[in-house]
Structures are given as structure tokens and as C-alpha cells.
Amino acid sequence: MKFVIEQHRSRPSDDPIFALNAEARARKAEGAPVINATVGALLNDDGSLAVLPSVSEALRSVPPATAAAYAPIAGAPDFLRAVSNDVLGPHAESGACAATPGGSGALHLAISNFVEPGQTVLTSSFYWGPYKTLCDETDRQLTTFRMFNEARQFDVQSLAESLDRVLDSQGRALVILNSPCHNPTGYSLDASEWDRVANVVADCSKKGPITVLVDGAYALYGARELSHDRERILKMSAFAFVAFAWSASKSFTQYGSRVGAIVAFCPDETDRKRVSAAFSYSCRGTWSTCNTAGQTAITRALVEPDLKARVDSERAHLKELLDRRVAVWNEHASAAKLVYPRYDGGFFTTVLCDRAFDVAAALKQDHVFVVPQAGALRVALCSVAERDVPRLVAAIEKHLSRQ
Q: Sign (positive/negative) of CA torsion 306, 311, 312, 314?
């Protein structure tokens, strides 16, 4: 096909996780006892999508004329204020913010604006696959540092060495850190690890400008919310640029509404205006404007006290649902001596193993679907009923023992 440019001709037509999910759903429709641990959305134990009723009501209450209208390019002002306050708290006035189609849009804006075409973005060795897709699509590269040391703790030393190399090579760096509840490992940085990351960034910043993007898509499902580490993260702004990818997909169970934002910490007004303008221009050059109805409803859910209280209460029930699965997983996976990182909350965990693709293929024989990657199996407990977790662990243990 000569009309498609050469570097795009061999691109896959489907995301591999979506393809695995489709295969699992097809087999379940045939009556097989499927455990589908591929879906990156929170499901109830009966397999239905978990949705916050209060947010759904807020969406339905948006006047038709409002929902049908264009939103401002960078996002509705009320929405931007609400999200900046949610992310930055008392520092909200220092936020340079733009509405994006989910957290993916926030990542796109960061990649497009903080590293040059042809340059490299740095993230951990385990990462959400679309990080690479987003880099490919914007003519950037993706490189990684080793995420875990031999003790399965965050490898800050590898981060330091990799960041040094990137800065030596290109004179600037964008580092994406997904915490809490990292996708795909479930790992959450603790306070001391954030402090050590800050020390690394401070040392490396002598070589060139560094942007640290914190991907907080799962922030409200961890044992420790991202807001608890806000101040120690923002301390990095003394020697680096700090930004956050914010998403309503998980926090408000609105995956399809495509509501997200990027929030950059810019205390200097001149810098804030310059960054905001860059974000707005990139918005116009990609998706133009974002979902008006979604922004309107999520704004209400963030700022109206009664509605916010309902949203928080309903989300707490969903977090309890997920936490029970996490507890059962930890009990059975520890007993089975599965090797996996610290996991105290979130949608996913990851079992570290060799020949992950072979193991995942073998698991399908038991109607168990997980997502293989280099050196690990991603397990989406968010989509697995609590009663099925012991069987899931037993199947993984069985096929790992046959390696």
C-alpha cells in the first residue's frame, strides 16, 4: 500500500490487551468458565461494569444545549480550576492546566511539549504499553530504567544511571512515573522512595532541564493517595518541572467519557502563561476540544459538596470491593510463593517470571486470561471476582511450576 507512509505500514490494527479481552469474552460466550484478568476496568463480582451512580446522574442532568456545545480549546475554566485544586490543593493557583481526552491525552501533551521530535522519553521497565505507542505516534522514542532491584523495591539507582545517560545524549529529559498503583505492577512509591527520586532528579538536573510527569490515573485506589505525597513531589520543582496526568476514567468510572487533564506546577506567572499556551496549541492541533458534558459533570462532582460526598462514598465502596480482592490475592499468592512486587491496592499486579508468553498461552487451556509481557504476567484483579482469585492463583502456580 504505497499511499500509507512506509513507517506506518506494518502497524498492528488492535491493542494486544483489547485483543486478549475479545478472545476471553468470545470463549465465555461459548460457556467456558473463563477468568478474564485482562480488562483494565473495575468490574463488579457479577461481571458488570462498576459505575458511580451519582456521576451517571450528573451526566444525565447536563442540559442538551450545554452538552452539544464546543468546550473552550484548553477546557472549561470551571473544570480546569476544579482539577487544579484536586491535584495541587493549596497550590492550585500555580497550575497550568488543559483538558485532555483521558489520561492518554495528558501523556500526549507532555511528550509533545517537553521533549523534541526524535528524542527519548524515560520510564520504568514495566510500563503501560500505550506509553510506547504515544511516543511512536509523536516521533519520540521510549527507553526504560530497571524498575525493581533484587529486593523487588523501586530501583532508584537505575533511575539515576538512566537519567544521566538520557541527559548526556539529548540535553533534556521527560521522566514518566506512574504511582500510586502502577500499571501493570500495582506498585506504589512510598514516602522515602519519593524522597530518593527527588534527590536523583536534583543531582541530574545539573546536566539539563528535567520534566517529571506523575501519572496518577489510579491515585484514588491505593493504600496511600497521591495527595499524601504532594508536598514532597512538588519540592522537585526547585530543580525540575513537575506535572501530573489526571484522569476521570478510573476515579469517576467514566472510561468512555474521555475526561482528563494535564496539570503542571508553575508558580511563576510568565511561565504559567507560556506553558498554558503551549498546551492549548497542542490541543487544537490534535483533538481540538474535549467532551463538554463530561467536563460539566465531573466539575460538579469535584466542587458541589453534596454531590462530592455521594461520589466519595460510592467510590469508597468500590475501593473496598477491590481491596478485598487484593487481600485474597496476597494471602493465596504469598502461600503459593508467587514472585511479585509490593501490592497494597490498585487495578493490577504483576507476577515476575521467565517465558511469560508461554505461560500465558498455557493458562488459556484452563480458561484463564492474563496479559504477558517481557518477564512478567499482568493480572487485572479489577476485573476478577473475589471468589475466582484463589483459582486464578492456583492456575498461575501450576503453569509456572511447569516452566
A: positive
